């Protein structure tokens, strides 16, 4: 709030240029939205704790083969989180520290103005004199990196939970494919019981995720479209001003947004793919090799497999790679509209 409130006051009370208003509004919108996401997660900490306990339980009872599957999905989540963290902090470093210094001091009406990462309106406080300038500068940099930490942590938690579900679906697919490997009725019965129990556990895990993941991802999609639109607009502005460092900074920030959005949609695509694999495993199952009574018990499971397990944004938008392309198209369209009206 120390950074956001003075920044918004500056945008709406002091800045008169509409193009600069749009440019200055971007970091404050991002900060507000990220804090909303973080608040949602904090309100669901008890639920998240239960999900983490479920993950620990799954690891503790998993066979060596299943642990390998969990390790693979966890490795994907770790790589995505690492890439997100590197790009987020790199973009933040350039935006909060390199960009203000690269523009240097501005002389206006015989007054030297030292730039801040986020210009703000501080009332009677003169932000240009020392040590006010240094304190405000440090607070804005620190505040920015707090927001970047929130971004990385919220994405990491959501990705971890979704990727664990991918592992559960992969294990279930393997068990379905192994169902006809034995002809002994007792063994087949045990396998069917195991499959049903896992199907129920996956459904319960998904229901718990649906209590907060759709809300977070709806906010994520909305803010990413808005920010990518504004950043694209900022790149054009910096290009017109021939500001090489500004272009580089906004390109890095844009790359950060693209990677963050891609990671969410990619995990959504993995869930859809695993759901499709389960469906294919059921419909290609040689059920006629099973005892008649046992094959009948598969009917409900086959019907359930036709309803894919997926991650949604607000239970409105199914997240997949197709959604990622649509998000980019939407952001570009809004950027063109923004450029025309300003």
UniProtKB/TrEMBL annotation:
Look up keyword Membrane and say if it applies: yes
Q: What is its main location?
A: membrane
Membrane-crossing residue ranges in chain numbering:
212-235, 247-272
**GO molecular function list:** odorant binding; olfactory receptor activity
Record has Transmembrane as a keyword: yes
Listed Pfam families: 7tm_6 (PF02949)
Q: What does the record say about its membrane topology?
A: Multi-pass membrane protein
Q: Which InterPro entries match?
A: 7tm6_olfct_rcpt
Query: What keywords is this UniProt entry annotated with?
Result: Cell membrane, Membrane, Olfaction, Receptor, Sensory transduction, Transducer, Transmembrane, Transmembrane helix
Q: Where in the cell is it found?
A: Cell membrane
Q: Which GO terms describe its biological process?
A: signal transduction
One GO cellular component, as annotated:
plasma membrane
The family line of this record is: Belongs to the insect chemoreceptor superfamily. Heteromeric odorant receptor channel (TC 1.A.69) family.
The cross-references to PANTHER family, in alphabetical order and at most eight, read: ODORANT RECEPTOR (PTHR21137), ODORANT RECEPTOR 19A-RELATED (PTHR21137:SF35)
What this protein is called in its record is Odorant receptor
């Amino acid at each position: 709030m120390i950074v956001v409130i003075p920044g918004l006051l500056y945008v709406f009370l002091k800045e008169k240029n509409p193009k600069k208003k749009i440019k200055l509004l971007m970091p404050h919108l991002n900060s507000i939205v990220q804090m909303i996401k973080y608040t949602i997660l904090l309100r669901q900490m008890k639920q998240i704790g239960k999900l983490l306990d479920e993950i620990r339980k799954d690891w503790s009872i998993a066979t060596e083969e299943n642990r390998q599957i969990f390790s693979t999905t966890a490795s994907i989540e770790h790589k995505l989180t690492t890439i997100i963290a590197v790009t987020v902090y790199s973009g933040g470093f350039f935006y909060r520290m390199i960009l203000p210094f690269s523009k240097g001091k501005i002389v206006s009406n015989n007054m030297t103005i030292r730039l801040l990462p986020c210009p703000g309106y501080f009332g009677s406080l003169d932000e240009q004199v020392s040590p006010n300038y240094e304190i405000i500068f440090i607070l804005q940099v620190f505040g920015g990196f707090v927001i970047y930490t929130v971004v990385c942590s919220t994405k990491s938690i959501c990705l971890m939970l979704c990727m664990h579900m991918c592992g559960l679906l992969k294990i279930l697919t393997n068990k379905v494919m192994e169902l006809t490997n034995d002809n002994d009725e007792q063994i087949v019965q045990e396998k069917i019981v195991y499959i049903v129990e896992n199907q129920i556990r996956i459904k319960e895990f998904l229901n718990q995720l649906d209590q907060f993941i759709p809300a977070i991802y709806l906010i994520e999609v909305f803010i990413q479209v808005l920010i990518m639109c504004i950043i694209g607009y900022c790149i054009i502005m910096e290009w017109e001003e021939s500001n090489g460092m500004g272009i580089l900074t906004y390109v890095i920030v844009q790359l950060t947004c693209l990677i963050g959005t891609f990671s969410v949609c990619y995990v959504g695509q993995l869930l859809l793919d695993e759901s499709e694999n389960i469906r294919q495993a059921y419909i290609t199952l040689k059920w006629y090799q099973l005892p008649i009574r046992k094959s009948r018990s598969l009917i409900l499971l086959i019907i359930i497999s036709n309803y894919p397990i997926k991650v949604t944004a607000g239970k409105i938008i199914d997240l997949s790679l197709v959604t990622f392309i649509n998000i980019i198209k939407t952001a570009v369209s809004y950027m063109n509209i923004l450029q025309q009206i300003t």
